[in-house]
Design brief:
Elements lengths: L4 E7 L6 E8 L7 H21 L5 H39 L8 H5 L12 H47 L13 H5 L4 H17 L3 H12 L10 H16 L6 H10 L15 H26 L3 H20 L3 H11 L9 H17 L3 H9 L8 H10 L3 H7 L12 H4 L10 H11 L1 H7 L13
Antiparallel strand pairs: 1-2
Helix pairs in contact: 2-4, 2-10, 2-11, 4-6, 4-8, 4-10, 8-9, 8-10, 10-11, 10-12, 11-12, 11-13, 12-13, 13-14, 13-15, 15-16, 18-19
Length: about 475
């Protein structure tokens, strides 16, 4: 494999320099000025292509884009929290660099304060900095509230796309109240396809104007399948939208409507009428996980019901397994377990045994990495792996941290199935890469360079649940 390049485009035109674009390429010329012109032309072409196929709604890209956006929201909230901590720390460091001496006592420390004595000359400048920071502290919770509005907006947009896709695949679900159209009205459309899309859009708008509970009821009535049975985080799901309504309409002040809706779905809250709710980073990350899990499961059901053939079931399985794999890679083990448990429900069809095996291994590994070794072993014991291909046996041995079996199987697995880099990158090897004997074995088999690149160890603290 040839060397690859990664470039960061820095925007220097705004108030502060920041990365505006990240690009991968196989040559340095791809980052030159002529390449930028080619990128612009390609972007124009892509927009044309997107507009041309915009009516051909497909579950796979809709679901993939939504999943990526939810992971992005989850990670962005972590970055926002870290940024806020850095800002706070930098202010404290600034005070201390100004040789301002802390004035502390046991009583002050116990109360959680850090106090500084200011000279008369230093006070005006320091006071201005402190007031600016005080404004940030005061308004930071409102930034989180805005984040929740964006998160909910993203889900609503996704739901609209799913309904459009469902209407295209199953046009009989559209109910336009028996309305009849005159010839003049029909002639306003450029084609019959445009007319059909206008009806779909009206139905989508009608559905999205209802509550999220009613939206699920509408979908259930159309596909004749339950969508909420066994959805353990349904109460959390509904509460997210009700809290969003509070932020949008009452600035977070709890209303009787909010409490009544929470009670109706079994969401427990200690909040009372008139109290003010906020959305701290933990709540926002939990919300992104909840919306992602519900959204993934919803799309899987709609996709499989509306396109009930082996080819679509296989594609749906691939997407489900890839999503779980990505969640495990970033340390969101409980979410991976949630959607993989869903994959093994009796109603789910799995045309390809190989993908099912991958899902079972990923489920076991998610349990293991979350600390539940017994659950991991239960998942693995559901299958007899001895007649399986060597790459499956190897991954099972890795989940079990069976180094001797891994060492026996590695030579039997072709590099086009598991590459040298995969032995460091894949989460199933996360336990083994901490072992010196495993690192030495990989060094002997694949050379020093691969070990130097990946280091032979990784810090799981950055991959823990909730980060």
């Amino acid at each position: 494999m040839t060397d690859q390049y990664i470039g960061f485009e820095i925007d220097t035109e705004s108030d502060y320099d920041h990365i505006s674009k990240i690009k991968f390429a196989d040559n340095i010329a791809a980052f030159g000025s002529s390449a930028h012109e080619e990128d612009a032309e390609k972007a124009e072409l892509d927009e044309t292509e997107i507009s041309d196929v915009s009516v051909n709604f497909q579950f796979q890209p809709i679901s993939s884009n939504f999943f990526s956006s939810m992971i992005g929201f989850h990670d962005a909230m972590h970055m926002a929290g870290v940024s806020y901590q850095i800002t706070t720390s930098s202010y404290i460091s600034h005070f201390e660099r100004e040789t301002i001496k802390p004035v502390m006592s046991e009583e002050v420390s116990a109360a959680g304060w850090r106090v500084y004595r200011l000279s008369a000359d230093a006070f005006p400048k320091i006071a201005d900095d402190a007031r600016r920071m005080a404004r940030q502290i005061h308004h930071f919770p409102r930034f989180n509230n805005i984040f929740l509005l964006g998160l909910v907006s993203q889900f609503d947009s996704y739901l609209g796309d799913l309904v459009r896709c469902l209407a295209v695949v199953m046009p009989h679900i559209i109910n336009d109240s028996g309305k009849q159209y005159s010839a003049v009205e029909l002639l306003e459309f450029g084609s019959l396809e445009e007319f059909k899309l206008s009806i779909v859009e009206r139905e989508v708008e009608s559905v999205l104007r209802t509550s999220h509970e009613d939206q699920f009821k509408w979908l259930e009535s159309k596909i004749k399948k339950p969508l909420r049975d066994g959805l353990h985080n349904w109460p959390d799901f509904i509460e997210i939208f009700e809290r969003r309504n509070l932020f949008a309409h009452t600035n977070g002040i709890v209303t009787r409507t909010y409490l009544a809706k929470c009670q109706s779905v079994g969401y427990k809250t200690d909040a009372g009428v008139g109290e003010i709710l906020s959305a701290d980073p933990d709540y926002l990350r939990d919300s992104a996980r909840t919306l992602m899990e519900v959204g993934v499961k919803l799309s899987q059901v709609l996709w499989r019901v509306s396109c009930n053939d082996a080819e679509n079931h296989e594609e749906a399985d691939k997407l489900l397994n890839n999503s779980a794999f990505e969640l495990i890679k970033v340390g969101m083990y409980s979410s991976a377990i949630s959607i993989l448990d869903f994959a093994f429900l009796p109603a789910m069809k799995h045309p390809r045994k190989a993908i099912l095996n991958m899902m079972r291994i990923n489920l076991a590994n998610a349990h293991k990495l979350s600390g539940d070794i017994a659950a991991a072993e239960r998942a693995l014991s559901e299958e007899d792996w001895s007649p399986m291909q060597e790459q499956f046996q190897l991954c099972v041995a890795a989940v079990r941290d069976d180094f001797e079996e891994v060492r026996r199987l590695v030579p039997l697995v072709p590099a086009d199935q598991i590459s040298a880099a995969n032995y460091f990158q894949w989460p199933v090897f996360r336990g083994l890469v901490k072992r010196n004997d495993y690192i030495q074995f990989i060094r002997e088999r694949f050379g020093d360079e691969i070990v130097e690149i990946y280091g032979g160890s990784r810090d799981d603290a950055s991959l823990s649940e909730g980060n």
